[in-house]
UniProtKB/TrEMBL annotation:
Protein name: Copper chaperone PCu(A)C
One Pfam family of this chain: PCuAC
Keyword Iron attached: no
Segments traversing the membrane: none
Region (Disordered): 175-195
Organism from which the protein derives: Streptomyces sulfonofaciens
Keyword DNA-binding applies: no
InterPro entries: LpqE-like, Lxx211020-like, PCuAC_sf
Domain of life of the organism encoding this protein: Bacteria
Organismal lineage: Bacteria, Bacillati, Actinomycetota, Actinomycetes, Kitasatosporales
Signal peptide (residue range): 1-29
Keywords: Signal
């Protein structure tokens, strides 16, 4: 008979890690909480079985609506933006920033965060980072930015290379999605008028 204790031990460890991630993230009120603790298999790099036509065309990426809610500590900050693609498929493989030693990619599924190795950017589509959904997680901040500051973030794509974005630091509760309008002007274009 297989050893149930070993399986249970492994499972418990997975649960503990998941909870740690949720707790860490909840501390900055950026992520949808949720403490689901069942071990669905998380990351599974979707290998490019996309239509050949999608991958043949060059991707054409444009990043808009970037913002970073002001963090409460130097431990963690979340970042959001939309990557629009008017060309062929691409993949976001990593993110770096002058403000953090480490930036990780998270998605939220069923109210629970999962770290991702990469994110697909569909052909003629968009990769959306927004509250309660996908987000960038800045860890071990080099300093604590304040509202009005701008943070440099570099998004590294498999095909398009690196795109650099100047991300404005917004009030902690800032949420363009909540107002209903996602058709807001690109990037910092919308003057920083948040009620
Ligand atoms: Cu997160």
């Amino acid at each position: 008979m297989a050893a149930p204790t070993a399986a249970a031990g492994a499972r418990a460890r997975v649960v503990a890690l998941a909870l740690a991630a949720v707790v860490g993230c909840g501390a900055l009120a950026g992520c949808g909480g949720g403490s689901g603790a069942d071990g669905t298999d998380g990351t599974g790099g979707r290998s490019g079985g996309q239509a050949a036509a999608d991958t043949a065309a060059r991707p054409h990426l444009r990043i808009s609506g970037a913002f970073l809610p002001v963090p409460v500590t130097t431990g963690l900050a979340a970042g959001f933006c939309v990557v629009r693609n008017t060309g062929g498929a691409d993949t976001l493989t990593s993110v770096t920033s002058d403000i953090a030693d480490r930036v990780t990619l998270h998605r939220t599924r069923n109210g629970r965060m999962e770290m991702q190795d990469s994110f697909p950017v569909p052909a003629h589509g968009a990769l959306d980072f927004s509250r309660g959904g996908n987000h960038l997680m800045f860890e071990q901040l080099t300093h604590k930015p304040k509202v009005g500051d701008t943070v440099t973030v570099r998004l590294h794509f498999r095909r398009s290379g690196t795109l650099t974005v100047k991300v404005p630091v917004r009030p902690a509760t800032y949420n363009p999605g909540a107002g209903g309008a996602f058709g807001t002007p690109p990037d910092g274009a919308g003057s920083a008028r948040t009620p």
